[in-house]
Amino acid sequence: MQHVKWYIICGLVGGLLDSSGMVSPTEAGPPPAYTQEHAITIDATTIDPQTWWQVPGVTPSIYSSDPESMDAYKTTESRALKLKPGKYKFGTFTFDFPFTVNLDGKLEYSHSLDQCVEGRATQTLTIRCSRTYPHGGQRDQYYQ
Known about the structure:
The protein is α+β, with helices and mostly antiparallel strands. The protein has 3 helices and 9 strands. The longest helix is centred in the N-terminal third of the chain and has 17 residues, at 2-18.
């Protein structure tokens, strides 16, 4: 009989704690730093010849429609994007590379891109090349 009372008491206490507004870690979601959007400017205006660019999952695709009427962004003007911390990829028809927005809203990317990309530790990603040179035919190390 005492075991039954013990189980009833434990059940009541557990029910009260569960309904008291306490949130379990799985229900809490990610910390606010991971959900905060940062204004990241993409400046590809020095790419020659002019083309279209994308950040997959964020901007309109460069592969989905007629080039004359597509919504994809052109390299004729820079654009500000709202990006949460995480990994992204910049891409044109001839050149793409991964970059990261860290928790402080600053950009990170491989040092092997320094010949064509500027903006590490800032909020402006500047792309100067339409492709990387020299290219030895091997997959670049910044792809994981």
